[in-house]
């Protein structure tokens, strides 16, 4: 259910959070079987908090200070887990992946389609390129596929050397 590290220390509680916790415990003792309407309950807690004296709040603030000290003490000894890393690190000089045969085809035919249909939007030009590629015969695609294969071989050699 919970996200994050299960070993991470529980967060520090504010004086108001301690107050709400005591309100909830009192409510459970008085009405053990009753369902709690959260908005109504929190509104009543808020009203009670506003009418509390500084002396009563002081006790809760002391509890919050103790809890804050506990949290800071636990955080000093806590070592975050490595977790999952988001992909491999890419240095500034890593070779770029080669374009696919379709991308090579697009870079070659895009100006032709734009010239024939200057009113088409970018998305429509791309759709048209996709249609032309899908309807093209295998021997029409072959030059792009050969070029893509050569670029891929070069890329694999460059990566191995990197």
From TrEMBL:
GO terms for biological process: cell development; DNA metabolic process; immune response; positive regulation of autophagy; positive regulation of cell differentiation; positive regulation of chemokine production; positive regulation of interleukin-1 production; positive regulation of interleukin-6 production. Residues 9-79, 95-162 form the HMG box domain. Its main location: nucleus. CDD domains: HMG-box_HMGB_rpt1, HMG-box_HMGB_rpt2. One of its GO terms (molecular function) is receptor ligand activity. SUPFAM superfamilies: HMG-box. One of its GO terms (cellular component) is nucleus. Residues 9-79, 95-162 bind DNA. The keyword Glycoprotein does not apply. This is High mobility group protein B1. It comes from Tupaia chinensis.
């Amino acid at each position: 259910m919970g996200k994050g590290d299960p070993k991470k220390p529980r967060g520090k509680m504010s004086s108001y959070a301690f107050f709400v916790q005591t309100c909830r415990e009192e409510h459970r003792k008085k009405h053990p079987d009753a369902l709690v309407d959260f908005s109504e309950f929190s509104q009543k807690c808020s009203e009670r908090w506003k009418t509390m004296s500084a002396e009563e709040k002081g006790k809760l603030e002391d509890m919050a200070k103790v809890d804050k000290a506990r949290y800071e003490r636990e955080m000093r000894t806590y070592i975050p887990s490595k977790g999952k890393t988001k992909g491999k690190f890419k240095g500034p000089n890593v070779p770029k992946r080669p374009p696919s045969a379709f991308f090579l085809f697009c870079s070659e035919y895009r100006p032709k389609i734009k010239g024939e249909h200057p009113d088409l939007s970018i998305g429509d030009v791309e759709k048209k390129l996709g249609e032309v590629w899908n309807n093209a015969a295998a021997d029409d695609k072959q030059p792009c596929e050969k070029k893509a294969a050569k670029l891929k071989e070069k890329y694999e050699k460059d990566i191995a050397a990197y």
